[in-house]
Amino acid sequence: MKKLILATLIGASSLLGIEIPKPTIFDKRVVYTDFNKDDVFQIYGKNGYTTVVQFAPDEVILDMASGFSQGWDFQDRRNYIFIKPKSYESTFAVDEFGETVNKKSIIEPTPDEWKTNLIVLTNKREYIFNLDLNVEQNSFFKFTFSYPADEKAKEDMQLALMKKEVEKQEVQTELNRTAIPRNWDYYMNINPESENISPSFAYDDGQFTYLGFDSTKDIPSVFLYENEKESILNNHIKKEGNYDVLVIQKTAKQIVLRSGKRIVGILNKSFGVNTLEEPKTTNSPLIKREVINAK
């Protein structure tokens, strides 16, 4: 019969789902546990001793409530709570005849009477504790929470950021890939006092036009000259050795470079001679350029 009762009690206890924290290998009175929002956490107090509960560093305690606040003292400091059992004064007593009389008496903590719970609300979480006064084993001096779900989310975010940075560097490497020249047949007409906007070299790869400028040159604005009219050409600048290369996203027979009153005309004498079989939008076969919100 005793064995049957014991098994029943053990089963009932496991159904309660109370999380018993794990002690350190150094001292059983210092304990740790992983936070789970659906767990009730067990704290063993002892008369004359204080237990400190430590939450996450970025948590602030907003509110607390207990079923037996007369018998327990709770003090919060930032992300810490200090818990200790306490005696309390009663003004009622029962005489030998069973009558209630006004009489002051001190009620001392006892294991059976001091069982209660504690609800703690912070700026990030809510916690439920089961409080017991235990004289048969060591009380908890320090109770520290760890947060594996938060750590996992933090690690996942860091990995995602690292992956994004690696992908960004890979894309930049592909974008900076040196083009394979297909046509060097370019000539320039440089207006007076316009030498410092004239490119040091010019070529195209059948899709884009590349104008190289050394450190003594200024980067001009670029225009397509066609049917005696000028229109702006899309372009970007990339570094290639000691040169800033103006990448014009088109090949053209005539290009005009302007900066204030300075003007340089570029003539492509082999325009349309050595074209690509399949148009491309970047130097890399892995990257395609798309125009977003084009009108």
TrEMBL record:
This is P-type conjugative transfer protein VirB9. The gene is virB9. Belongs to the TrbG/VirB9 family. Keywords: Signal. The lineage of its organism: Bacteria, Pseudomonadati, Campylobacterota, Epsilonproteobacteria, Campylobacterales. It comes from Aliarcobacter trophiarum LMG 25534. CDD domains: VirB9_CagX_TrbG.
